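Re: [help] complex structure
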Amino acid sequence: MRIELNGEPRELAAGATLADAVRASGADEEARGVAVALDGEVVPRAAWDSTPLAEGAGVEVLAAIQGGAVDMTGCGFTPFRRIRR
Amino acid sequence: MTVGRSASQWELGGRQWSSRLIAGTGGFRSLEQMEEALAAAGAEIVTVALRRVDPDAQGSVLDAIEKLGLFALPNTAGCFTARDAVRTARLAREAFGSEWIKLEVIGDDRTLYPDAVELLDAAETLVGEGFTVLPYTNDDPILARRLEQAGCAAVMPLGSPIGSGAGIRNPYNVAIIAERAEVPVILDAGIGTASDAALAMELGCDAVLAASSIFGAADPAAMARALRGAVESGHAARRAGRIPRRTHAEASTSYEGLPDLS
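Output below.
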């Protein structure tokens, strides 16, 4: 199954869940400060295991980083793909 | 302007705070440099952001913040629409287990000015979802009032563009916002050096947020210490009640009993 994980195409086994995608992202699953969006909507940690992924699903795995007032360092980022300029 | 229980205490989001200097955690060369600067700032509240996971990232900013006993305030930096900001806030709530959000909705990446329409829209949605919303806003008294009416826990007007270090370009507007606000006013963005932070407090702000001015200084910890002193002095001067500005001199020594030496 092909999904988009943090903006990159990624191949996961058929029947993969959101928890599998989180592991594939390299995130420390137990770590505080990790949050996951599936097609733009937040999925609580407790539901990662039971949330199936569909072909072409967009998964964003986010973590806390150092941030300032509006720190655009290393930006060009948005957790969502459509930025309005 | 809200008045806390004592000269130093103030209330934000239903909690009492001692430090009136809020610090950014971004931009430092290392976590060690960040820790040193945050300690020197005496900050209690520090801002953090959410980004895509980097499996190679060294050290955890949350661990460092916890070690220092600070309160992590997540922001929505990098969001250009109300929808993205609301989604980022929900992700932050999940990631940090906190309802507090520093709401930033930017209009473009050249000025980094807030998009007033999207900002108010996002603020209304997030207040409705139970968030403690701290919006980064323009130095517009009417927009500040609308954000307050929407239920925001504070308003955070900019002094000048983020990272510009240009100080407070419209002190009159900042004073108007501070004068009529019934929620705390936190000067956000534009601080370049200590005098800017002191001015913000003298204008009636309850607190100051500093980021670039600290991490960009040649000696971040020393600048953090300077800003801390400036915020305290500015606040003390505000409470002391300054003399009015006059065009002409006003003698402080009486003319009475002046001898005739001609």
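Chain A touches chain B at residues 6-7, 25-27, 31-37, 40-42, 44-45, 60-75, 77-80, 83-85 (CB under 8 Å).
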